[in-house]
Amino acid sequence: MTREAVADGIERLMELNPLPALFYCTLVIVYKKYPSLDSFLGNIVQKVIAKDLSSRDEITRKAFYRALNSLKTVAYSAILTKFTMEEFEEFLAYSNRTETLSALKEFLPTLSTHQQKNINEAIVNMIKDRDEKKDKAKDEKDHEKDKERERIRLDRRDRERMTFFPIEMSRPPPQPVFVHHGFVGGVTSCAVVNSEGKKAILVGTGEGKCELYDAETHMLLRIVYGNLCS
């Protein structure tokens, strides 16, 4: 059978009212066997939509929407330019909603300016809104990945520090060995010395004194030199 004969047969079937569910299955089979009839089949889909979908029974409507899913780009122009928002929502209910909206979004720029003006604004907003939400979700996901990578990097850095500098990392911070206030003229020098078998702290002051303090009690042991009467 030639494609012309097939096309003529479909035109004759279009005269049926109502169109049977089997008719929509026929459209899919014809497209698979004669893909060059894509433009013709696209026009047929537009004529079917113009026949008023609301008058069909549920089984026939289901067959029609499933046929549109199988025809894909052949039917996309008619879906976008001829469907009402209610019909579009019903069509999505019989398809993979996410994949279909994504495919329609990619198909949209292929339509002429005139065709795009004929698309229901609510349908356009649904397609674009989904794309914007997808981009926002992707940005948030990328941000979370960046935060996780930074956390891993800092953890690795800390582990490397502990590996190469274990003593330094575990050593407590230095503490003052001697705290004393009231040195006249301030402290000019300080040293830990051994005095009579015990540790002592030798302090030189700006007043010219050199005083010796017990390292543990911090009590003044004696004035090594300076004002011996103080």
Walkthrough of the structure:
Helices cover 59% and strands 12% of the residues. 14% of the residues are buried. It starts with a helix and ends in a 5-residue tail after the last strand. It has a four-stranded antiparallel β-sheet, with no helix packed on it. The chain has 230 residues and is an alpha+beta fold. A hairpin with a 4-residue loop joins strand 2 (198-205) and strand 3 (210-214). It has helices spanning 3-13, 21-33, 38-50, 58-71, 73-82, 85-93, 97-107, 113-117, 121-164, 166-170; strands at 187-195, 198-205, 210-214, 220-225. The chain is built from ten helices and four strands; from the N terminus they run ααααααααααββββ. The protein folds into two domains: 3-119; 175-230, no CATH class. Residues 130-150 are annotated as: Disordered. InterPro entries: Symplekin_C. Residues 2-92 form the Symplekin C-terminal domain.
